[in-house]
């Protein structure tokens, strides 16, 4: 793993844990584009599923990827400079491709600064309310709504006040998904999907299937 | 063209002009992800080149595209809901593919609200200074720096003060590019490229070439 604090990015191998990334960033005042929650497959699993719990456009936070296609081809896409990924973009189709384009070898995440952060939970009452300020991450786990936010001190204080609830700590959700994290009715839900153990990935559109075939062999 | 003001998106055919889009949005208080500048190829040309003058991540503002591949295949990707484009993403590789994946039939742009807007210019002194607030669009044309910003009234007023200069009006830059808008030393420059008449597109990485071949036939 490489933390480039001055340039606000981090390079992590696909097998790194998400909480390992948090540990590597401790004291830097920088945050990755995921909450302090351990999920199946670590960094690689997260990128292949298209992120977790974000309320922003996750793919834009992945500056680059290196991946191994099902046919054994190594592909390196994007880089550490945003400029590079605004044309001929193979990073974005890989993010959220649920492993169809291959397995993550490395990912480069944009880091964002926060002088404060807060991880809170409160009882789930159905639906994700439109908070102001909107926390960067929101998810339901069983019958509780969780939110994680970071940013300027005043903004995080306003988030605490708006959200209420009580403190949450880093979570390890891997035991919920012994057969893998798929899309279906389950104990975990974010703005994109409800996540269920051993459930399949979302249905693949035909045009995307062609892309898979192109990179697969 | 379809303006969906309540849902903050717009659908435009590829051949529509960029200033035509501005005209369609007049009075809505909503803005597209490009400045009031006419460029070669209108909406389609803009999407294929990956945007113009933006200081944000342009591909995320393109919610969907329909395109015709060089081999005559019609591909529809993404949609009007952000959720749909965060997995199996063929929108992002199309945006900025410089026509290699085909020609734009339709594009769906996210619209963003602004109670005020300002289009300003001032003499170019070399380089793009780090303005606060950062205007949404910045470009050099000949020996002048142009900036367009929209947003809350107070923020636009602060932009005016920080930028200085004088008022600019909508521009038609098509006469600068009778042979098409390519990447090279020229009279127009944004944060990504210097744009030159008749110049080639950026070099294509090998992995992206495979994607082109997959969708081309």
From TrEMBL, chains A, B:
Coiled coil (residue ranges): none
All copies of domain DUF5639, residue ranges: 133-198
InterPro entries: DUF5639, FAD-bd_PCMH-like_sf, FAD-bd_PCMH_sub2
Molecular functions per Gene Ontology: flavin adenine dinucleotide binding
Pfam families linked: DUF5639 (PF18690)
Protein name per its UniProtKB record: DUF5639 domain-containing protein
UniProt source species: Thermus oshimai JL-2
């Amino acid at each position: 793993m490489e933390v480039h604090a001055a340039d606000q990015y981090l390079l992590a191998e696909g097998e790194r844990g998400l909480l390992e990334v948090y540990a590597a960033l401790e004291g830097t005042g920088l945050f990755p584009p995921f909450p302090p929650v351990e999920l199946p497959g670590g960094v690689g699993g997260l990128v292949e599923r298209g992120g977790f719990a974000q309320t922003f456009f996750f793919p834009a936070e992945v500056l680059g990827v290196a991946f191994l296609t099902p046919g054994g081809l190594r592909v390196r896409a994007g880089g550490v400079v945003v400029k590079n990924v605004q044309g001929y973009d193979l990073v974005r189709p890989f993010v959220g491709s649920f492993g169809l384009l291959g397995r993550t070898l490395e990912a480069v995440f944009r880091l964002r600064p926060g002088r404060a952060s807060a991880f809170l939970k409160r009882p789930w009452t159905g639906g994700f309310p439109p908070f102001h300020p909107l926390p960067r991450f929101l998810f339901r786990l069983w019958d509780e709504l969780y939110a994680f936010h970071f940013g300027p001190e005043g903004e995080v204080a306003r988030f605490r006040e708006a959200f209420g609830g009580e403190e949450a700590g880093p979570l390890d959700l891997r035991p919920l998904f012994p057969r893998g994290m798929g899309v279906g009715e389950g104990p975990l839900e974010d703005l994109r999907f409800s996540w269920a153990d051993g459930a399949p990935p979302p249905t693949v559109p035909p045009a995307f299937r062609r892309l898979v075939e192109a990179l697969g062999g």
